[in-house]
Amino acid sequence: MKTLPSLFLPVFLLPSLSFAVTPQLMGGDERLACEAIMCLTNPIKPPECATSLRKFHSIKYKYGHDTINARRNFLKKCPMEDRTGFDEFVDMLVK
What is the pTM of this model? Predict the structure, then answer.
């Protein structure tokens, strides 16, 4: 059985990105992490993405692997009801 190219993966995963709480109740890094996930998967970056993407890209360390780990941990702050495949999805976004 053939696997789908990774290009199509975000489209199929987006419906499974269900939030544990409603977005209006989230704040701080949780909200920014969820917004960053949505913005990173969107080829067109609307102005509403500026804050969350600025936070994501401001995470920098001396060594690249530390930066990747910190950015991955930031995105994982988004509360999810079903985390099946979420870690792999976040890994794909960060690398």
Answer: 0.71
Rounded-to-integer distance, Cα 41 and Cα 12, Å? 11
pLDDT in tens, 63-73: 999 999 999 99
19: which strand partners? 80
Does the CA dihedral 46-94-91-1 come out positive or negative?
Answer: positive
If one counts every other C-beta atom within 10 angstroms of the C-beta of residue 39, the result is 19
With a CB cutoff of 8 Å and minimum separation 6, the contacts of 17 are: 37, 38, 78, 80, 86
Q: Are 23 and 89 in contact (CB under 8 A)?
A: no
What is the rounded CA–CA span in Å between residue 60 and residue 65? 10
